[in-house]
Automatic annotation (TrEMBL):
Residues 170-231 form the ANTAR domain. InterPro entries: ANTAR, CheY-like_superfamily, PAS, PAS-like_dom_sf, PAS_4, WH-like_DNA-bd_sf. This is ANTAR domain-containing protein. It comes from the Bacteria. PROSITE patterns: ANTAR, PAS. Residues 3-78 form the PAS domain. Pfam families: ANTAR, PAS_4.
């Protein structure tokens, strides 16, 4: 017979910082690693919302918005969501001073017997000390070295390749860089599409962007995809032919 397992003790033994939230994003409990990393007690977190215990740094006002958005996504889809590396600073003994922190965060759903999500588990790893290596990863991308595996990246990042966290940590760091690259690529494509519309329609940059935005909203297609479609024509001719009565490109 398999002996009973003390799940509370198991939860406390998990080395990652774990926080349990209800569907209203109120903190239910946290494991010891979470309390140690944040310098709090269970009594301080239970029954309170995150910003009440961990005020948002005014220099990073969107921190809580990002977290709430991720939690809402998991509640809606019922699927775990890896946020990657995010910034959420912790206030110090001086309420006006914040300690910069970066976390590798995953939000996971806890369903009941019917499959309805009743709670969320927020799992975080404090990666503040290694966050600066993102610049080195970015340099690697720029040089197109294309490190093949975790060991190669670990060597580049000067991280111990034998540590259990290396693979996931490196993956999270690379994911953040890839997101930055995607954002830069999107911006470049949108700017190119704006230039084409400005030339074709004889309009200014604001009008060109509004034209792209309206097309995105009207067709329920991402703005970047709309811009890529336009730029992919590789010619202004298709744009001219599209600028007619009722055309989505018409300003």
């Amino acid at each position: 017979m398999i002996p009973a397992v003390d799940l509370a003790a198991v939860f406390d033994a998990v080395p990652d910082a774990c926080l349990v939230l209800d569907v209203n994003l109120v903190m239910v409990t946290a494991n010891q690693a979470y309390l140690d990393m944040t310098g709090t007690t269970r009594a301080q977190v239970q029954g309170r919302r995150i910003p009440e215990v961990f005020p948002v740094n005014p220099e990073d006002a969107a921190a809580m918005t990002r977290l709430e958005s991720a939690c809402t996504r998991v509640l809606r889809t019922g699927q775990p969501h890896r946020m990657g590396v995010i910034r959420y600073d912790l206030v110090t003994d001086d309420p006006a001073v914040f300690d910069t922190r970066f976390w590798n965060v995953t939000i996971a759903p806890v369903p009941d017997a019917d499959g309805t999500v009743t709670h969320l588990v927020h799992r975080g790893r404090n990666v503040t000390d290694v966050h600066p290596v993102l610049l080195r990863v970015l340099a690697t991308y720029c040089r197109e070295l294309g490190a093949a595996d975790d060991a190669d990246l670990a060597e580049l990042l000067e991280v111990d390749a034998d540590t259990a966290a290396t693979g996931e940590l490196v993956a999270a760091l690379v994911a953040e860089v890839e997101q930055m690259w995607e954002a830069m690529a999107s911006r470049a494509t949108i700017e190119q599409a704006k230039g084409m519309l400005m030339s074709t329609l004889g309009c200014g940059p604001d009008t060109a962007f509004d034209t792209l935005r309206r097309q995105s909203q009207d067709t329920n297609v991402k703005l970047r995809t709309v811009a890529e479609t336009l730029v992919g024509s590789n010619s202004a001719a298709p744009v001219r032919s599209a600028v007619g009565v009722g055309s989505p490109w018409r300003s």
